[in-house]
Request: fold
Amino acid sequence: MGITMNKLHKKARYSFLLLAIALTAALLSGCGTAAEGQGSKLNIKIADISTNPVFRVAESKGIFDKYGIDAELITFATPAEGINSLFIKQVDVAFGADYPLLNAASKGDYSIFASSGSSTDQGAREWKLFVRKEITSAEDLKGKKLSFSRGTFIPYLWDVYLAEHGVALSDVELIGQGAFDEAYVALQKGEIDAVWVYGAVLNEKFGALAEAHELTDMSQTPVRLGTGLIATNELLSNNKEGMVSFLKAIDEASAYAQAHPEETADILYNEVKQPKEATLKDLPNNPWNIGFTKKAYEGLAGQKEYMVKTGTIENDFNLDEKLNLDLVREAFPDRVEVE
Reply:
């Protein structure tokens, strides 16, 4: 009996030890943030949109795996919404135009860490202005209701476009809206009089409205978009090697997408039901080239000046302090043109 009880005690102590080890391992594995990674992998949540091929190509073609990236893509209606999701820690990395990038940088511990390129004239032509049928010139917009997507550069575009035609921003009413579907219904019903839209799918959809027509496109203005990537300073400082690999991965994915348009169109259709024809039309207009040029810097500086002047950015800041170019400089030293 004593021997049996002794064996039982030993088994119990052994089982308890195994349980303690398992619990400790489980607790340790859950201590880090989503971006800290496990082992050699960098685990990050990336804000995306359904029309952007870069991240989905990187994921589906194994490019993220090749560079040790375990990515979760979270889809938003616009890049600006994705950037705003940084505030509630829904994502770790986001991309977008200069306007929402600067807006986010002004509000917290975030840094712009690379540029993905600047808009060309060809790309600018894909931003089209649709107006109600009775509007035939920019001057006709005086006193009208003009749509803008919240958190985007569109108010700036309106300001520049209207000023070129002698109409002040104070002469119109800007109506903030969410997704483009909201603007579509509002334009159809006459609740708004004009809206800027982008991309083959939206241009075709708005172009089919009986109540509206295309008035012009952004290439007829001096406005050109810069786009870039933003993340928390904590992520960038704690995962330097992983984030350098991330930049290399998305640059490779962009090049792959441009070189394989049909396959890229299939990927977007299979994953998010983006029409293949739309992808084939949009793809040449927005090639990503990871780096940071003088043009990218000047674009950010000019946009920030406007945002401070108009009160969008309430507290001015030093732009250089919101740029972390060490990672992109390590990844692509020949593509960084600023100190």
